[in-house]
Amino acid sequence: MTTKIAFVKVTDPPRARLTADGYTVKSGSPTRYMVRLEGETKYRRLMCWQFSNAGTLFLRIKGENVVVPSSDVEAFL
């Protein structure tokens, strides 16, 4: 990821527009983390693709899915 994370905040995960399995219609499960990227003022919801017991965190930026290393998020917690 070329843009660095500037701040991470923890919120309640959203429950609206989720399937019975807890995934959004567009795919991915919303996490309780919101991240703000450097140079931006808005927060973005960190999403997760979950397969068995392994998950991959990602952000949706301008319609593109960008994978976020969990170490980048853990640095703020």
Would you give an account of this structure?
By secondary structure, the chain is mostly beta strands. It has one helix spanning 70-74, and strands spanning 5-10, 29-37, 44-51, 54-61, 64-67. It has a five-stranded antiparallel beta sheet. The radius of gyration is 12 Å and the shape is globular.
List the helices and strands and how they pair.
Layout: E1 5-10, E2 29-37, E3 44-51, E4 54-61, E5 64-67, H1 70-74
Antiparallel strand pairs: 1-2, 2-3, 3-4, 4-5
Quick structural gist:
By secondary structure, the chain is mainly β. The protein has one helix at 70-74; strands at 5-10, 29-37, 44-51, 54-61, 64-67. Helix content is 6%, strand content 45%.
Task: Please describe the structure with a list of short key phrases separated by commas or semicolons.
77 residues, 1 helix, mainly beta, 5-stranded antiparallel sheet
First and last CA, distance: 19 Å
Poorly predicted sequence stretches spanning 5 or more consecutive residues: none
SSE string: EEEEEH
Radius of gyration: 12 Å
> Total number of helical segments?
1
What is the strand arrangement across the widest sheet?
1-2-3-4-5
* CA-based shape: globular
How would a crystallographer describe the biggest sheet?
A: 5 strands, antiparallel
- Share of helical residues: under 10%
Strand content: over 45%
